[in-house]
Design a protein that fits this description.
disordered N terminus, single chain, 2% strand, Ammonium transporter fold, 2 strands
Length: 384
């Protein structure tokens, strides 16, 4: 293969070989200077196609700016990207949908990033947001499950819980990557939030909200109603409209946001960085919703977005992030997304034991490592 030459623009221009002539060879023309307009266009291109490495390098000169950039990248890592523009769009989406959740997500990602820096965890990983995203979604989750809103004690609980996700992430990264070769994904968020809620519902001043409580363990086993509806007790919606809304709601549930507009804005934030990942997110959510309807999963869970959430994450991780994107990796991701509704309802009773109304993204945390290990074990899949 022909070796390419370096494109370092700081090197002086090299003169062409002299011709067999009595006349002196003319020097090569100097390179045209880069204009501010060219710089702006290159920054815009980086912003909408990748992780903006030059922007990151430029901010490294200022510790405060670098910390803010890492925090925004932590928010964007919820959708497997390290792009501060995507992080800003996602954070703005949360804040517009709910000012309280906007505050708790911000506190969560700042607390987790600060804890990682204080403990001097992997600096490169911290810089690109690896230790921030579990804190961000822990902030969203606890902002949803704790009450009342705008309570300083509840906000302090959010900060402490989010900070705990950073060292837990570091430990799980080391153990899981060394033993199984897989990453913890959102497992730190799930463990911290479920553990904290289980404790808070048992104390008098735990600030547990109405959505959580050990009373969930007493629910009678009844046949699930797969009719797509707005509430557990009714509010049936048209099938086509309901499926479309269910798919979009899955994206909003990444930050515990209800509503179609929130879901669309989350998908837009992802598409700003990667159209491929945005397409995989929609594909995963569509697959999970369709699978849930075929299986007869409770229609409220589906329409609320809890089904699409896990399908979206599985398809994103397997189809476009953890494996090299290909037809086989996407097919494997779609298969995992189709399985995710069954795992979600299977984990429901276990989550209820801890006072949780849902298993959140635990199905994603179980399915993706299983598929990746299967991929490494099977010679057929490993060719993907």
């Amino acid at each position: 293969m022909k070796k390419t030459e370096s494109s370092d623009t700081t090197a002086p221009p090299v003169a062409a070989p002299a011709a067999a002539s009595a006349t002196q060879a003319q020097p090569a023309p100097a390179a045209l200077p880069t204009t501010d307009h060219d710089n702006v266009l290159s920054y815009v291109k980086e912003a909408v196609t990748g992780d903006m490495p030059r922007f990151r390098a430029r901010l490294d000169a200022s510790p405060v700016a670098a910390f803010a950039d890492s925090a925004l990248r932590g928010v964007s890592m919820v959708v497997f990207t390290s792009n501060p523009l995507t992080g800003a769009v996602l954070l703005a989406t949360v804040a517009v949908a709910s000012a309280w959740l906007g505050v708790t997500v911000t506190v969560g990602v700042l607390a987790a990033t600060a804890a990682a820096k204080f403990l001097r965890l992997d600096c490169d990983a911290c810089r690109v947001g690896v230790f921030g995203y579990n804190g961000a979604i822990a902030g969203a989750g606890l902002g949803t499950f704790l009450a009342p809103e705008w309570n300083l004690a509840a906000l302090a609980l959010v900060a402490v819980a989010a900070a705990l996700t950073a060292p837990l992430m570091a430990v799980l990264l080391r153990v899981m990557t060394e033993v199984w070769g897989v990453r913890p994904l959102t497992l730190p968020f799930n463990l911290v939030v479920i553990g904290l809620v289980a404790a808070l519902v048992s104390v008098e001043r735990g600030h547990a909200g109405p959505l959580v409580g050990h009373a969930n363990t007493g629910r009678a086993a009844t046949a699930a109603d797969s009719t797509l509806r707005l509430a557990p007790g009714g509010g049936e919606v048209d099938l086509v409209r309901g499926i479309a809304e269910s798919v979009v709601h899955g994206a909003g549930q990444l930050f515990f946001l209800p509503g179609t507009v929130s879901g669309l804005l989350v998908l837009l934030g992802l598409a700003l960085c990667s159209r491929l990942l945005a397409a995989l997110a929609v594909l995963g959510s569509v697959t999970a919703v369709a699978s849930a309807q075929v299986m007869g999963v409770d229609g409220f869970l589906t329409h609320f977005g809890l089904v699409g959430l896990n399908g979206l994450l599985v398809c994103l991780a397997v189809g476009g992030v953890c494996l090299q994107p290909s037809a086989r990796s996407v097919a494997l991701g779609v298969a995992g997304a189709a399985l995710s509704p069954l795992v979600l309802v299977a984990l429901g009773p276990l989550a209820a034991l801890f006072g949780m109304p849902t298993a959140m993204s635990l199905p994603f945390c179980l399915i993706v490592p299983a598929l990746l290990l299967l991929h490494e074990t099977s010679p057929v899949l490993k060719r993907a």
